Amino acid sequence: MKRFLSLPLAALLLVVFAAPAFAADKPVKINTCWMEESAAFNIWYAKKMGWDKEEGLDINMLVFSSGLAQMEALPAKQWSIGMTGTGGQLVGGIRYKIYSVAPIIPDDFIQALYLRPGHPATKVKGYNPGYPDVYGSPETVKGMKILYTAQSNVHYLIGRWLEVLGLKESDVTLVNMEQPSTVPAFEKGIGDGVAIWTPFTFAAEKRGWFKAAANREVGSFTWASIVGDKDWCDKNPELVAKFLRVWFRASNMLREEGSSPRLVAEYQKFMVDFCGIKMDQEDAKKDLENCPRWSYDESLAIIDKSGGPCKAEVWQAQMANFFAGIGRFSPEEIARLEKNDIITDKFMKMVQLPIPDWKK
Average per-residue pLDDT in the chain? Predict the structure, then answer.
């Protein structure tokens, strides 16, 4: 005789046996860290398109005002992976447990030091013949008050500018504040100069502030990287690789489509929705062009250690030694950074290739 399960029992068994399958299909939530700047657009757009879900991820984006703020949030496990600047990477490598997973954006054009129009330093160009496009001189800069964000890329920019002019940090007064506060503070008359990165530089340009120096002009080089909580990355290497796959899918789109009208419109929406900044078409186009993304192959080449120290290690050492030279890091901390060996290519090499087509 055939036996049939009652409807309630059949439904119960269906739930019991189907539950693992449903659980396996549920995207893994990952908390990620960003700042109010261009790099966050990659993941903001990818989330909009559902690319994170295609990789089995549910990416949650958290915004911080600086790399230092990001690293201070790491012990509380507020985030697992995300983007930071070179300053944040140094602090993370010295004081916290992080990996630098992938270099993503060169900072050649996004940081600058502005002075008030008419300041005596704006009248002196090329004081140091080796840096003909840099403004200022010892006499015009000594005693200046400069707004900045400590232990960040703009801090490095100020240090290099002073070095070019034969000065030290002790010759000026540095006023530490988070980037969103610098422009309104300077506008209210606080300080003689302000060191900022995009998109805040666009506000400076529109207000007619005088650009005294930028990265290339003082011979500094910084970059943005994907970094991760070391413990989390070691426990979840496949999730790191999937996250990178999402990132580079968006990067490929930006590299191929550039600052098209469509992307400019998307970027403007991103700036309002995520950064809380209203940006016109001209500035949005400029920001996209000033923040070129490295490709997967370019990024991997920068952290390739097969021939000795990789490019990223050389760049990191230059910046770390600079901060050590001005007393921001001790010799013991620099030794710790070197011992921690935070720059790695192991997660990049785990990325499943090819990267999915962004047009699909």
Answer: 91
CA distance 115 to 195: 9
Question: Nearest 5°: CA angle at 325, between 322 and 327?
Answer: 115
Alpha helices in the chain (DSSP H): 7-25, 40-49, 51-54, 67-72, 86-95, 138-141, 153-164, 179-187, 200-206, 215-218, 230-235, 237-257, 261-270, 281-290, 296-302, 311-325, 331-340
233-244, pLDDT tens digit by residue?
999 999 999 999
Q: Please, what is the Cα angle at 34 between 104 and 299, to 5 degrees?
A: 10
Do β-strands 173-176 and 145-148 pair in parallel, antiparallel, or remain unpaired? parallel
What phi and psi, each to the nearest 5 degrees, are found at residue 210? -95, 125
Cα 148 versus chain centre, distance:
17
Q: How many residues does the chain have?
A: 360
pLDDT digits (tens, 9 = 90+) for 269-314: 999 999 999 999 999 999 999 999 999 999 999 999 998 999 999 9
| Encoded tokens for 337 | 């950074």
| Helix (H/G/I), strand (E/B), else coil: 294 | coil
SS3 assignment, position 31: strand
